[in-house]
Automatic annotation (TrEMBL):
The lineage of its organism: Archaea, Methanobacteriati, Methanobacteriota, Stenosarchaea group, Halobacteria. This is Phosphoglycolate phosphatase. Pfam families: Hydrolase_3 (PF08282). One of its GO terms (cellular component) is cytosol. Its EC number is 3.1.3.18. It comes from Haloquadratum walsbyi (strain DSM 16790 / HBSQ001). Substrate binds at residue 157. It catalyses: 2-phosphoglycolate + H2O = glycolate + phosphate. The active site is at 15 (nucleophile).
Amino acid sequence: MYTDADATVPPLVLDIDGTLTDAPGRLDPRVPVYLQSWDAPIVLATGKSFPYPVALCHFLGIEQTVIAENGGVILADETVSYQGDSERAQAAASVFEERGGELGWGGFDDVNKWRETEIAVDLSADEELLREVAAEFDLTVIDTGYAYHLKTPGVEKGDGLKAVCETLELDPDSFVAIGDSENDVSTFAVAGRSYAVGNADDAAQRAADEILENSYFDGTASVLDRIESSETS
Ligand SMILES: O=C(O)COP(=O)(O)O
Ligand SMILES: [Mg+2]
């Protein structure tokens, strides 16, 4: 198993949308090059449902260590765990729709089809109505810049990172975190060092140790380049 003593570069906890992608959410073509050669554990921590980051790890050929659904689903060392009240989120989503709200994903809702602990709603939705219904169900709404997530309060990526670290016997403080939005604030609080890419929202910018000049993967790559050059210099 990887131990800190072997470290040449730090472990990474990386958000996906807005951090490894461009604005519309397309994976940056440099991601395989950077991640496949990174010589330390990588945790993908995303608001996407579980199959997306698992598939991304699979196709990158890296270890499947994943925090999905904003901390709702965690995979580390081949063990999956779940947090959050999915039935309550489902019930709230139904009420939201009954009152005229729309999830907004079209005929084939691949955003929620495999979602197990929360519900995601398109940013075109009626935010006021969504927040009103969420409050009635004691749920919270977070805005990642890619979707609204109707979720159980207190289920966050940062706790997912703590759980992953316990399973893998890693020190959260050894991690470098990179992200772009409100749902990365908890990760930034747990990791030893945190970076908000240039496109990050206000919450992520406030929470990060450093705001990067460059946006999207240009920002992420700038941190990885900097770490690698300081390790080799
Ligand atoms: O699914 C979203 O809404 C955002 O995903 P992310 O956490 O990877 O940025
Ligand atoms: Mg993001």
